[in-house]
Amino acid sequence: MRATVTVMLKQGVLDPQGEAVRHALGSLGFDGVQGVRQGKVIELDLADGATKADVTAMCEKLLANTVIESYRVEMGA
Amino acid sequence: MKAAVLVFPGSNCDRDLAVAFRSVGADVHMVWHKDTALPDGVDIVGVPGGFSYGDYLRCGAIAAQSPIMRAVAVHAGRGGYVLGICNGFQVLCETRLLPGALMRNAGLKFVCRMQALRVATVDSVFTAAYAAGQQIMVPLAHHDGNYVIDDAGLAVLQAQDRIAFSYVGNPNGAMADIAGVLSENRRVLGMMPHPERVVDAAHGGTDGMALFSGLTAALVAA
Question: Listing from the earlier edge strand, what are the strands of the sheet with A69-75?
Fold first, then answer.
């Protein structure tokens, strides 16, 4: 059982790293990049029977800081 | 005054903090992160700077889940004092003992230099020995010191006079120039600058001394 957690800064929280990437893309000549937000992807290998609720609890407790970050959980095969 | 200084893998200001506590006469105990209890009778817990757990996942996130932090939360919950400096401030935010979070510096660079701070409140044992509005010079050394809190949270900090120190000239993008904040009961302080590095003139300054001497003045009787 595999789960993929995507953690992103919440909308409205300024992302200095994403801004730097946006500037760098502009200076490389990639026009029209209006915004870049950088996050992280965490892949979990889980024992059979693990539920989305389990992974959500992991996000709330450790994987995301919900003061500034939002997360999305996708359960795979 | 009995002080405990926590030691995580990757802490690197733990000994400096112990020296600062000892310089004001504290009985200092170093406490390993896997310990589940603080020494009996501890008045104040110091959460030191450094790179606990290599800053993996988020600065302070993994340290916040260590066994000793559960004991620190109990200590704080019953009115004990806690001082978190730099990575220690990040740990206290991650444990939610303090509000807000510390993000990557707005300039993206690691900032390492002397920084002017304003003592924003003298209503705490940590700041009582300073003059209100006093400007002090304290070293900074961090990559993730950009303090962020939502508008409602910021309004609460301001209304309750819980901003302990503010930057004079913002080095990292921190909201409202916040360098350090107090808990609601004013007994937990987290700050990014390093007062423990300016307690000896031979190290370039003594502006951090009043923080530690103020603690002794308040806690020796306790």
Answer: A40-45, A2-9, A69-75
